[in-house]
Amino acid sequence: MKLYNTLSKKIEEFVPHEEGKVKMYTCGPTVYHFAHIGNLRTYIFEDILEKTLEYIGYDVKRVMNITDVGHMTSDSDSGEDKMLKGAEREHKTVYEIADFYTKAFMSDIQKLNIKKPEIIEKASDHIDVYIEMIETLLKKGYAYEASSNIYFDVTKIPNYYELSGKKSEDLLVGVRDDVEEDKAKRNPADFGLWFTTSKFENQVMRWDSPWGVGYPGWHIECSGISYRYLGEYLDIHCGGVDNIFPHHTNEIAQSESFVGHKWCNYWCHGEHLNDSSGKMSKSKGEFLTLSLLESKGYDPIIYRLFCLNSHYRSQLVFSYESLDATKNAYQKLLSKIKSMKEQPDGQLEMNVIEQYQNQFKEALENDLNTANAITTLYDVLKSDCTNATKLYLIESFDMVLSLNLLKEDVIDATLESYIEEMIQKRNEAKKNKDYTLADQIRNELLEKNIELKDTREGTTYVIK
Q: Which of 11, 54, 194, 231 is deepest in the core (most CB within 10 A)?
């Protein structure tokens, strides 16, 4: 298995700390709003990584956090708390906001066939471990108290910028100096480990600590939850590219200072999903959620396939035209599989199965090349092997792809949607007297064993 490691800036052979086992941590959502589809692209990539590792024989233990406290709207530990902002927006308590959007997120990942991580923990449930880590960092001299808050001193870490590749002087531009706590920092890049309520008087989630009543910084939660459930050594840490700096950079600094050795060997990041105007976010344009796509007639699995057709490290541009093309391709794929299921002829050809499974694994083991993995699926469909062999391979591949390729109700519903869409296009063509296009649509359906019948009441169809 080869993966691109953000830490080394190159593709490396994956070697876990313990043979045959993988400890994997993935940054979870901040549950103050719905996840947009750009966020969900990252979770699809992480799902594929976990399922690939399991497919090739690893025992994977995956942990994910739910950020329900301490995440500022600015990565410089300034601005508003996102949870508090969400509560004010919707006139609810922060606990109601966290519960509602956590459930919404879980619903989204279920619709996308994303495997639920083995361990999912809320940040607000682990205050004790954050306090333990912060006390140790203070004793070791990596942290200091200023204005009743606790900060991490980044100058104590010589390779602090290794993950991001940034330079300290590049980050001085735009540093805020209008916040009292920021003025108390020893260095502009120092980050908060614990804030007292003097920073946000309206903060609802707050706990006793040796430094006063307050709440943890955003970055400490992932280090604490990972340490509690995965121990001192982590194999793979994932997230979006926007997590590289400062979030993952700060995780490395505080975790390695706490445990006293290298913490995580492989850092994997998914690229942005962009729209026509640039990076997708919750604050501009149409807020693209999975529910919105569903309301427009798109099965969430179509969005999953749309993402898998590109590489997780490549920026992907979203458009409804591209989603329509993916929808049509998916419908045709399911139609072809359905016809094969109705005629599962022949015996299993084990040598052919091994050949294509190896090809599928090679694509995924090459830094998760999902596009080539899907090409292998089409190679199987176009091959002259028996339908029984093809169906066996499709079922095998879908353990990773998770596209519902053999699920009866999905096939029937999607096929019906496809046929109705083609009938509508044919009716439009006939209305515009484009009889050539109308005949092409009829013939395309006939090739899929779907016969149209024009009646006084409209067009009906028969599947042969």
A: 194
Q: Which segments within 284-432 are labelled E, that is strand?
A: 316-317
The amino acid occupying position 192 is G
Paired tokens of 179 = 């916040």
Closest alpha carbon to 218 in 63, 25, 73: 73
Q: Are 389 and 353 in contact (CB under 8 A)?
A: yes
Q: In 56-188, where does DSSP find H-type helix? A: 82-90, 94-111, 127-140, 180-184
| Residue 399 Cα distances to 106, 328, 357, 405, angstroms | 20, 22, 12, 10
Average pLDDT rounded to a whole number, residues 44-50: 98
Query: What is the full DSSP assignment across 414-443?
Result: HHHHHHHHHHHHHHHHHHTT-HHHHHHHHH
Reduce the DSSP state of residue 408 to 3 states and report it.
helix
DSSP string, 281-306: -TTSSS--BHHHHHHTT--HHHHHHH
- Beta-bridged to residue 455, according to DSSP, are 458
The CB-side HSE value for 391 (13 A sphere, CA atoms) comes to: 18
Q: Cα torsion for 438, 443, 448, 453, to the nearest 10°?
A: 70
DSSP states of 204-226 as a string?
-S-B--TT-SEEE-HHHHHHHHH
Q: Per-residue pLDDT for 79 more than 80?
A: no
Using alpha carbons, select from 158, 137, 155, 160 the residue that is nearest to residue 7: 160
DSSP, collapsed to helix, strand or coil, labels residue 380 as helix
User: Between the CA atoms of 451, 455, 459 and 464, what dihedral angle is there, to the nearest 10 degrees?
Assistant: -20
Share of the chain above pLDDT 70, in %: 88
* Residue 70: predicted pLDDT: 59
Looking at residue 115, what DSSP letter applies? Answer: P
- Distance separating alpha carbons of residues 464 and 162, to the nearest angstrom: 61
Structure tokens at 444: 């395309």
Average pLDDT estimate for 63-84? 67
- Total-model pTM: 0.89
CA dist 300 → 27, 64, 109 (Å): 22, 22, 10
| Residue 384, number of CB atoms within 10 A of its CB | 5
Phi and psi at 60, nearest 5°, equal: -105, 130
pLDDT of residue 201: 61
Q: Please state whether the peptide bond connecting residue 246 to the residue before it is cis, i.e. omega within 30 degrees of 0.
A: yes
The alpha helices in 173-271, defined as continuous H runs, are 180-184, 218-230, 249-259
Question: Which of 342, 354, 407, 415 has the alpha carbon at shortest distance from 385?
Answer: 354
Which structure tokens are listed for 130? Answer: 């954050």
